[in-house]
Amino acid sequence: MPVAEPMNIQELIQAPSGFGPAEIDLLEQAIAGPQSIEVRQQLGSLKGEIEESSSPSDTLLAKVGIISYILGDHPAADRYLSRVESDSLAVFYHAIALAAMERYQEAAERFDRAASLGQDRIECTMRKAGVIRQTGRVNEADDILKSVATEAAGRAEYSYQKGCVFSDRGDSFGAIEYFERAVDMQPHHSRALFRLAAENALRGNDDDAIRLYEQALSKPPYYLGALLNLGLLYEDNENYPAAAYCFRQILSVDPNHERAQLYLKDIEATSNMYYDEEQAREQARVEQLLNRPVTDFELSVRARNCLQNMNIYSLGDLTRINEGELLAGKNFGETSLHEIRDLMSQHGLMIGQNINKKKETPPPYAPTQSVNLSPQEQAVLGKPISELNLSVRARKCMSRLGITTIGELVHKTQDELLGTRNFGVTSLNEVRAKLSEMDLKLRND
């Protein structure tokens, strides 16, 4: 199959005429591929022309603003496009940039302005409904969508906006149906893909979420939220280079993005720490073996009764007592001792091998001690961990640790949490802040 010739980026961007949908489509293809650097170089050249001109043309301002938006630099897009009043496409892209910056009322006004200049009225109306919905006026947004339903129902944007309305009203299944319909009509509808990915991540469907986020990011403009969420999913799947790439992409657009900075710092800080899966499996096997009750094995009645009288119930208990203590037990003789030695040897264990390891003491809020707590304290500590509304990363770490209640969490120390895969300082600070809101702390804090 012949390889497509690279497009002439300089000719595309420096052409005297302004951009139209065809030129923007070509720019998006270039930015998504190896010619992204050339686009940035030409953008720098155009910015230089604006700096040198006392009255730059609307065409020049529009080009710089639109390219800035496609690259994800919304503040720059706003700076240049806010100076354009006669180019309908430039005004339309300014409205989109304003919406991305959460300046919803201004965005609504610019969508109206774009429509009045001849930009697609239906598209502008649907986008306006979207920013109105984001101010909390869901019913008003839905009414606007209904007003153009006859003309707009066959468009992906209409299904996307309807999905958002259903989502805001709490109907996630209705929302998913509309988002899927939008993607069926327009496979690269980034915002619909983003919402579908988020729904899958929320339900624990990580593989589907990753696939959808990757699809959403296969073509610009790139949404920082999608990059951030995809980075976290990559990290959780131990694809650390890909996760770091996502966070660096965010910082290339927004160097002050706090969460991307912290997540990247976490990855870099643990770059020399390796998770030995084989060792972890072996440790889990040994722990499971030590927890097996002695009644699981064929022992003589005398040996079994002697162990029961000495409160020895598991193989782990036998590793924490020496042979002398066993022989001191009533009716426990050399025959029983040899029997126990053989049992332990068969499983690669020895009597007394963990003699210096104490049994784990019950946690401060263990159920056995709940009688010392007030009913109010018991109620708080018995709440599910979901009550803390933790981030995806922190939630998954709680799952790895088997923590299901707040009481189990406050029993943990910071070192125990930081020792969990993918749990860094960022997640630790998040957990501490959430517990602080409930007047609780981690153990030893």
Please give a quick description of this structure.
The protein is mostly helical and 445 residues long.
Q: Care to describe what's here?
A:
The chain has 445 residues and is an all-alpha fold. It has four domains: 9-197 and 211-216, Tetratricopeptide repeat domain (Serine Threonine Protein Phosphatase 5, Tetratricopeptide repeat, Alpha Horseshoe), CATH 1.25.40.10; 198-210 and 217-272, Serine Threonine Protein Phosphatase 5, Tetratricopeptide repeat (Alpha Horseshoe); 290-359, DNA polymerase, domain 1 (Orthogonal Bundle); 369-436, DNA polymerase, domain 1 (Orthogonal Bundle), CATH 1.10.150. It is built from 27 helices and no strands. It has helices at 9-14, 21-32, 36-52, 58-70, 74-81, 88-100, 104-116, 121-133, 138-147, 149-152, 156-168, 172-185, 190-202, 206-216, 224-236, 240-253, 258-269, 277-290, 301-309, 315-318, 323-327, 334-346, 375-381, 392-400, 406-410, 414-418, 425-436. Helix 3 packs antiparallel against helix 4 (58-70) and helix 5 (74-81) runs antiparallel to helix 6 (88-100). It starts with 8 loop residues before the first helix and ends in a 9-residue tail after the last helix. Residues 358-371 have low confidence and may be disordered.
Order of helices and strands: HHHHHHHHHHHHHHHHHHHHHHHHHHH
Helix content: 55-70%
- Rg: 31 Å
Helices and strands: which structural class?
A: mainly alpha
Content of β-strand: under 5%
Shape: elongated
Please give a handful of descriptors for the protein shown.
Serine Threonine Protein Phosphatase 5, Tetratricopeptide repeat, 4 domains, mainly alpha, 445 residues, 27 helices, DNA polymerase, domain 1, 0% strand
